[in-house]
Fold this sequence. Notes:
By secondary structure, this protein is mainly beta. It is built from 8 helices and 40 strands.
Amino acid sequence: MNSLRHNLAVYKSYFTPSALIKILIAPAIVLVYFTGVSLLSKTDSEAASVNATYTDVVRQAVNPKTSASLLTIHSSEVQSAAKKHGFTQSQELFLASPRLAVGLVPIYRVYNASSGDFMVTQWRSEVQNAIKKYGYAYEGVAFYAAPSKNQYTTPLHKFVKGPFHRYAVTPSDVQQLERNGWKNEGVAFYVRTLAATPAQEQPTIPNQATPATPSPAPSSPAPAEPSGDVVPWQTIAQPGQDIHTVLQHPVLHGKILQLPKGVFEVTNFRDGYKAINIPPQVKGLIGSGRDTIIRLKPHSSTYGHTVPAQETRSTNQLYVLRMNDGTTPQLLADFWLQGTEQGHLYNGIMVGKSQPGTTVRGLYITGIPGNARENPGETFGLTFWRGSHSITRSVEVDGRRVMGNSITQRTFGESVGASGLAFSTHNYAKVYDSYIHDHRHGMPTFWQSNYGETWNLQSVRNRIGINHERSFGTVHHQPVMHSAHAGYHVNFLADNGNGSLKIIGATNDEWISLTTKGSIGKNKKMMVMTSTDYTGPNTNTITTPPSIMLDDGKTPAPYFWAH
């Protein structure tokens, strides 16, 4: 894995202490999920929300020769550290969150090249001190955890011996380190124990309040999430039936099908369009978190012949799941859609011609295969086609092949995805707190889709940051864009008109050139591409420059406009 966050060799050389201290003293991004509730609130409802986000196992790898240790949520990094740096002893230590959520804070990681030691902390001042006094280098956010105790968390103790750090959760591990001469420096932050079970067994479908967002406020409030009677899978599914078959049950008309934890596997596509179809009269499909897994049985497809040849530029119509032509607002929520090897390309989820207020929330979509920047090789993990006024919340689309029968036992493979998220001829989309990453050829895309608005849309290690084609009036609040393969942050392209694009309070890697990037931070100079020859020589029709602003939405931020 060659990302900035995960590759140890890149960590050693990429950042300078002076540049990173500037990042760390920049204003923190305070993300607010619900009206009046901040990240550091401590109510019971917030704690329950945080509880559901602890999905990733944090491993502690140790170099037995030096006693240096490494904390990471990435099994590939454990393997790399063992092979390249002698961290041959490892154990699963606790559960943390891979993404920011209400009640959580970033856990920063630093590395000392002289000793080979890694340290993690929630305190920016401690990172600055480690850089200035002890020669550590900043490596970014390792994961997210709680700054204080609640009913779901337990303390993580930090130990030091000489120049090295070690961490422990259980009383027995704490006592063992103390017996071996390690000094207990107290509680670093709060995590979930491995024995804990995420509180997602009985999901409900509340009418959620409109989330508060960083200034400036949304131009219009987001509609309430679609609601309706929930029908548990166990009450209507017969032995041997798959999801597609159960979704056709008449009892589900006007209702939502709820899946328990487990693997729900379908065999083969049903035609040249889908493997699973949600009928227009069904109000939605929800799972019980990332341990509800939906996938196509590997190597079961007999529909490879329907995928057009690349030179035809025709669209690949195969989707694992389609929800088209809804008669009311519909809901997809809380499951893992897992891409599998089929010997040909296909797409993930299509939400087509949806009713206003249709919501996609809490999905984890991985390994949807694609191999090009145009059809049919340009495939998508999640696509909204036509319709309008959709809501996307807390969705992660990972272009890597991620396999497993539970979230804690998943394994990470290579990047196979073309693109993660697309809005195609779909106006007034709203996107909140979504993370699109590790796609080889694409990025979050707005195609002929106007007046979209996003808050904390994160595009990391994709081809570029965010793509806009024939799309105007889009506003991005506090987006995160960095480590793009193509070296720039935003496409703003059109051959059919002129309009606006606004970006407020971005976090990105500083644009120096197509081949050189500076440090990652708030309002670093970004690069916006408006090609003169978009669809042919001198076809560009955009003359209005993009509006790139600081968090206040008024003060200009630095950027370079290539046009």
